[in-house]
TrEMBL record:
MF terms (GO), sorted A to Z: glutamine synthetase activity
Taxonomy, superkingdom: Bacteria
Cited PANTHER family: GAMMA-GLUTAMYLPUTRESCINE SYNTHETASE, TYPE-1 GLUTAMINE SYNTHETASE 2
Gene: glnA3
Annotated keywords: Ligase
Protein name per the record: Glutamine synthetase GlnA
InterPro entries: Gln_synt_N_sf, Gln_synth/guanido_kin_cat_dom, Gln_synth_cat_dom
Length: 449
């Protein structure tokens, strides 16, 4: 069994420890990502891998209301009392650096049952709900990030060439190291390129199950950060790291299939959409106003989520339309994984487990309700008279919307919505009166791993 690949459950913990020790592992970190989108973890010596699996490592319930800085957004039900556990599966352990390995954690109660605020367990339940409907789910992830100098400032000052060979070859040693490290960690990277924004990089992941893709998003962030450090760089996953700069997205791609085949191709609807596929996309669009707080609810998200930024600021869909919230990719020879729907407005301040759960859950909701697919917007929505107006993305508005949304409570649970609202309201109080330049500077490294 190659290191970094999940086993079949037949390998003992003792054998796994010996295997990892053979690769130089001394410490294992298990992480969870909180509603503020920040990934946090605990480390154990390799010999305690079995304990991390069986008993877990203790964490305060306040981990679920830690904020993007050092604040804690206590709620009436989350305070200083109580204890939860992070538990990991030894089969999920991946190599991330010399002597270090990582695994995604589940947040559990003392008895081992999923904690109410475990985002990874929520996504697993949502994926199970799809399976109960006879649906197979595949999710792909894209990570945009900004390379920084070691001091947190711009990595380069010379003119930038988007997607340019010069700008990428200038970082060739870093990119080769990144590809090698990602392969060693068991990541399936499909593409790496320099992006439109100055010092911006994008990494695309192969589609997988929803939980596995969210895990890979976190692992890719870690690998990017550790690899960059070896080359004198830092990595920002802020939606907007510098005022006026191009923003970073965290797009997710969704495909669904049943016993008859893919829902997004092979039918008689637009571009081959089947009836259930049309309703799935309709469900995603229908829920967008209620769920922006999940996808792009941070103190800097609105700076990116504007018309003209290719960020999907309008609740509509269109074939290969990068200004639509849902960009549809048809089943063609140029789409090796088949037809899929890309949700463009997600940014890296979102918890990827919650974002994927909201995306998939809203698609299932659309199917269950047989929602009608709106007319396609085939051009820039700003140029189409019949297109809906841009979404309201101001932070107070999107947090108010999710707080009072029955759809959000249905898809994410009231407990998770409450924690998310608490940490985002803390951001409003802490950063709401700052200028964009001050806010982007304060949060430049908030979501870095």
């Amino acid at each position: 069994m190659p290191v970094g690949e999940a086993g079949d459950g037949q390998v003992s913990i003792e054998d796994r420890i010996e295997e990892l020790r053979g690769h130089g592992v001394e410490l294992v970190v298990g992480s969870v990502t909180d509603p503020a989108g920040v990934t946090r973890g605990k480390y154990v010596p390799l010999r305690r891998l079995g304990d991390f699996h069986r008993s877990g490592m203790g964490v305060s319930p306040s981990w679920s209301v830690f904020c993007v800085d050092t604040g804690i957004a206590f709620t009436p039900t989350i305070g200083v009392a109580g204890d939860l556990r992070i538990r990991i599966d030894p089969a999920d352990v991946r190599l991330i650096d010399d002597g270090l390995a990582w695994a995604p954690g589940n947040l559990t109660e003392q008895q081992g049952t999923p904690a109410a605020l475990c985002a990874r367990s929520l996504l697993a339940r949502t994926e199970a709900a799809a399976a109960e409907r006879g649906l197979t789910v595949r999710v792909g992830g894209e990570l945009e990030c900004t390379m920084l100098a070691a001091d947190g400032g711009p990595a380069t000052t010379e003119p930038w060439s988007p997607y340019g060979i010069r700008t990428s070859l200038d970082r060739s040693a870093f990119l080769v190291d990144l590809a090698t490290t990602a392969e060693r960690a068991g990541l399936s990277i499909e593409q790496i390129h320099t992006e439109y924004g100055h010092d911006q990089l994008e990494v695309s992941l192969a589609p997988d199950t929803a939980v596995a893709t969210a895990d890979s998003v976190i692992l890719t962030r870690i690998v990017l950060g550790r690899t960059a450090a070896r080359h004198g760089l830092r990595i920002s996953f802020s939606p907007v790291p510098f005022e006026g700069a191009a923003g970073n997205g965290a797009h997710l791609h969704l495909s669904l299939a049943d016993a008859e085949g893919p829902l997004f191709s092979g039918g008689d609807g637009p571009y081959g959409l089947r009836a259930a596929g049309k309703s799935a996309i309709a469900g995603v669009i229908d829920a967008l106003p209620d769920l922006i707080g999940v996808y792009a609810g941070s103190a800097v998200s609105a700076l990116r989520l504007k018309p003209g930024n290719w960020a999907g600021a309008t609740a509509c869909w269109g074939l290969e339309n990068r200004e639509a919230a849902v960009r549809f990719i048809a089943a063609t020879p140029g789409s090796p994984h088949g037809a899929n729907a890309e949700l463009k407005l997600i940014d890296p301040s979102a918890n990827p487990y919650l974002a994927a759960a909201a995306f998939l859950g809203s698609a299932l909701r659309g199917i269950d309700r047989s929602l009608e697919l709106p007319d396609e917007v085939a051009d820039n929505p700003s140029n189409v008279a019949t297109a809906p107006p841009p979404l309201d993305t101001e932070q107070t508005a999107v947090i108010d919307a999710i707080e009072h949304s029955a759809t959000a409570a249905e898809l994410l649970t009231p407990e998770i919505v409450g924690a998310l609202v608490a940490v985002r309201r803390y951001e409003i109080a802490t950063f709401g009166d700052l200028s964009p330049a001050e806010t982007t500077a304060a949060l430049r490294l908030a979501w870095s791993c």
